[in-house]
C-alpha cells in the first residue's frame, strides 16, 4: 500500500510540474483551476484588492454581442526584464527627511513582492538633473584627465538611498545610469543647462567619465546593470541637457563609448541608445542600428512618453516598428511622469490611467522593461532646482511625515506585483475598445492578465481561453489583474 501511495504522490507532483513546464514552453494546458481577481477602481476603496475568484466553464464560439478578452498562452513573445522607477536626488533627499518608520514603509511598499508591489528595476542620474536640489559635477573645471573625479556629493542622500532600495529588493536590483549633461566646460555653450553639444575634443574624456562613474559606484557596493548614452538628446531644456543628432550619437557610440566600455572591462553593461520620446524613436533607432559598427555595442533602445507635448497622443506604433525591424535588440521604457504638479490634483484618477494605458500598449508592442520616473517626491512635487515640479506615484509631506499614495502606485503594482522577471508575454486580445489588455505567463506557469477600463461604464465580459471562459466584470475607471492557475 505504501508503494502505491508513493507512486500516486509522484504522479501528482509530476502533473503539476508538467503543467508549469507546458505553460512556460508555449503549450497550453486545458486544466485550469480558476481565476483570482485583483482590482483598483475609482470611487471605491479597492486598491490592488483581491475581489473574488472566477471559474472556467466550456464556451465554444462567442457571439459578436458578447464582450470578450481572448488569451492564447501558447503564443509567446518578449521576456520581461523588470519594472521599476528612478532613484533620483530628489527622491533620495525627500526620503532622508522622513521619519525612520516611514522610510521603511516606502521601501517595503515598492520592493517587497508580497506586502508591496515588488519593483525589480531602477534608474539613476549621472551628475545632476532637474530633480536635484542644485546643479553639480563630479569633476573640477578643465580636468580632462578626470583626476578630481569624486561622487562625494551623492554620499549624503543618493548612495544611502540606492543601497536601501537594493536591500529592500532582496539584495539584487538591476540599475542603469543616465547622464543629463557633461560638465559645462566640455560643451560648446559652457553650460550644463540649456542644451548645447559635447565638444568633439572631449568625446574621449566623456566616454572615460562613464567608466569612472560605473566603477566608482560599483566600488561602493552598487552594481550597475546598464547605461544610456544621453537623457533626451533632442531636448534643449532649461535644466541639464545636451543635444546629439542621430548621427552624432551613433558616432559617439561606435568610436568612443562602445570601445571604451569594452577596453575597460565593461562590455557586459547594457548600452541603451535614444532615451527620448516615441515620436522619433524609429528614426533614431534606424540611424544607429543600421550601422553595424555602432549596433554591435547597443543592447537596446530606450524611450519616454512625453511626445504628447506636441499635441499628439502616445505613439505606440513607432515602438512596434522598432521591435519589428530590429528584433535582436531590446525596447525599454526609460521615463514617464505626470507633469505640472498641483497638490489639489493629487487624487485625480487620470494619473494612474495614463500609466495603465502606457504600460498595456508598450508591452503589447514589444517592450521588455518599464521604468517610472521619481519613485518619491515631496509635497511640492520636488525638490527641483528649476521649478519643473511633477507628480510621483508616492509623495511625502515632509512637514507632517505622511506618505501619500496616488493611484499611479496601484496601477503600476497591477503589473510589477504579478508579472515578474522572466515572464513571457502572450496573446491577449479584446473585442471592445473600452477594454485594453495585456497578458504574461510567469516562470511558475501562472498567467497574469491585465484588463484596463478607462470608460465610465461597468462592462461584463468573458475571459476566454481555448474553448473555456470565466465570467468577469470590469468596473468603471478600473484596472484588474486576473491570475490564472
From TrEMBL:
GO terms for molecular function: hydrolase activity. Pfam families: Glyco_hydro_30 (PF02055), Glyco_hydro_30C (PF17189). Residues 422-482 form the Glycosyl hydrolase family 30 beta sandwich domain. The lineage of its organism: Bacteria, Pseudomonadati, Bacteroidota, Chitinophagia, Chitinophagales. Belongs to the glycosyl hydrolase 30 family. Residues 82-419 form the Glycosyl hydrolase family 30 TIM-barrel domain. This is Glycosyl hydrolase. Keywords: Glycosidase, Hydrolase, Signal. Residues 1-20 form the signal peptide. PANTHER family: GLUCOSYLCERAMIDASE (PTHR11069), LYSOSOMAL ACID GLUCOSYLCERAMIDASE (PTHR11069:SF23).
Amino acid at each position: 500500500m505504501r508503494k502505491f501511495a508513493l507512486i500516486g504522490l509522484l504522479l501528482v507532483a509530476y502533473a503539476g510540474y508538467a503543467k508549469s513546464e507546458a505553460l512556460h514552453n508555449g503549450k497550453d494546458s486545458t486544466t485550469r483551476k480558476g481565476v483570482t481577481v485583483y482590482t483598483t477602481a475609482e470611487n471605491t476603496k479597492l486598491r490592488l484588492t483581491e475581489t473574488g475568484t472566477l471559474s472556467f466553464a466550456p464556451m465554444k464560439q462567442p457571439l459578436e454581442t458578447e464582450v470578450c478578452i481572448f488569451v492564447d498562452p501558447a503564443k509567446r513573445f518578449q521576456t520581461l526584464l523588470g519594472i521599476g522607477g528612478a532613484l533620483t536626488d530628489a527622491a533620495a533627499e525627500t526620503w532622508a527627511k522622513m521619519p525612520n518608520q516611514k522610510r521603511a514603509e516606502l521601501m517595503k511598499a515598492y520592493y517587497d513582492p508580497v506586502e508591496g508591489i515588488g519593483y525589480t528595476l531602477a534608474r539613476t542620474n549621472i551628475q545632476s538633473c532637474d530633480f536635484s536640489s542644485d546643479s553639480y559635477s563630479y569633476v573640477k573645471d578643465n580636468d580632462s584627465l578626470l583626476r578630481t573625479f569624486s561622487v562625494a556629493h551623492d554620499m549624503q542622500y543618493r548612495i544611502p538611498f540606492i543601497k536601501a532600495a537594493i536591500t529592500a529588493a532582496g539584495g539584487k536590483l538591476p540599475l542603469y545610469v543616465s547622464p543629463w549633461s557633461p560638465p559645462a566646460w566640455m560643451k560648446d555653450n559652457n553650460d550644463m543647462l540649456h542644451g548645447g553639444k559635447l565638444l568633439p575634443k572631449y568625446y574621449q574624456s566623456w566616454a572615460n567619465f562613464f567608466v569612472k562613474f560605473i566603477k566608482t559606484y560599483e566600488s561602493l557596493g552598487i552594481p550597475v546593470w546598464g547605461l544610456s548614452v544621453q537623457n533626451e538628446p533632442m531636448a534643449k531644456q532649461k535644466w541639464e541637457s545636451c543635444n546629439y543628432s542621430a548621427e552624432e550619437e551613433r558616432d559617439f557610440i561606435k568610436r568612443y563609448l562602445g570601445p571604451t566600455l569594452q577596453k575597460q572591462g565593461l562590455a557586459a553593461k547594457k548600452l541603451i541608445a535614444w532615451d527620448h520620446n516615441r515620436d522619433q524613436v524609429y528614426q533614431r533607432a534606424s540611424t544607429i542600428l543600421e550601422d553595424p559598427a555602432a549596433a554591435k555595442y547597443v543592447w537596446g533602445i530606450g524611450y519616454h512618453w512625453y511626445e504628447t507635448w506636441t499635441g499628439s497622443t502616445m505613439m505606440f506604433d513607432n515602438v512596434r516598428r522598432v521591435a519589428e525591424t530590429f528584433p535582436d535588440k531590446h525596447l525599454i521604457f526609460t521615463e514617464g511622469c505626470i507633469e505640472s504638479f498641483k497638490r489639489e490634483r493629487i487624487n485625480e484618477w487620470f494619473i494612474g490611467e495614463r500609466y495603465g494605458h502606457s504600460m498595456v500598449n508598450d508591452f503589447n508592442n514589444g517592450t521588455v522593461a518599464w521604468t517610472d520616473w521619481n519613485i518619491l517626491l515631496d509635497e511640492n512635487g520636488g525638490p527641483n532646482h528649476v521649478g519643473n515640479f511633477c507628480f510621483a506615484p508616492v509623495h511625502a509631506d515632509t512637514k507632517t511625515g505622511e506618505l501619500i499614495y496616488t493611484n499611479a502606485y496601484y496601477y503600476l503594482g497591477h503589473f510589477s506585483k504579478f508579472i515578474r522577471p522572466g515572464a513571457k508575454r502572450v496573446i491577449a486580445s479584446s473585442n471592445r475598445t473600452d477594454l485594453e489588455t495585456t497578458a504574461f505567463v510567469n516562470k511558475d506557469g501562472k498567467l497574469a492578465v491585465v484588463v484596463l477600463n478607462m470608460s465610465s461604464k461597468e462592462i461584463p465580459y468573458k475571459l476566454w481561453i481555448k474553448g473555456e471562459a470565466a465570467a468577469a466584470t470590469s468596473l468603471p475607471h478600473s484596472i484588474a489583474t486576473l491570475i490564472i492557475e
